[in-house]
Amino acid sequence: MFLRERLRCVESGGTAAKDPAFGAAARHHVEVRDLSALVGTEVRRLCFGYQVTLDLVGEGVAGAPVSAALQIEAPIRLERVDGEVECDPNEKASHGPLTALLRLVVTEATIDESETLRLSFDDGTAIAVPRDPNYESWNLTGEGVPQLLMGTQ
What we know:
Blueprint: H1 3-6, E1 7-10, E2 29-30, E3 41-48, E4 52-59, E5 65-72, E6 76-80, E7 83-87, E8 106-111, E9 117-121, E10 126-129, E11 138-143, E12 147-150
Antiparallel strand pairs: 1-2, 1-12, 3-4, 4-5, 5-11, 6-7, 6-10, 8-9, 9-10, 11-12
């Protein structure tokens, strides 16, 4: 399958129009790999439940304000100078290492050819979230960013 079949962007102009994967009819779908709007944002808040949510706030590289929520439901690979740690959003005991992301600034945000989301931060830390073949892996919503869902379609 092509990325555009699983990863959908809604050109909503900030309105509530949504992708079918988010539960309502979408106005327009386009293939999106450009997550550069996240570069320069800061992890202002982390929320833990059966998913991990990063609230990303700041000015993107184009100087436009960004206020986004990245909700991750698939396992997260946390890459640090001292090694890698696997964090499962469903396993409370694995959440601890992710708190190091608080107040870090995004320096790179990409989706690679294997559909893995990767964010790099200003202290050298990175996270990688591979696409889950059976469940929604992650979604990105908010102002100043494309509205995305990496799902199973």
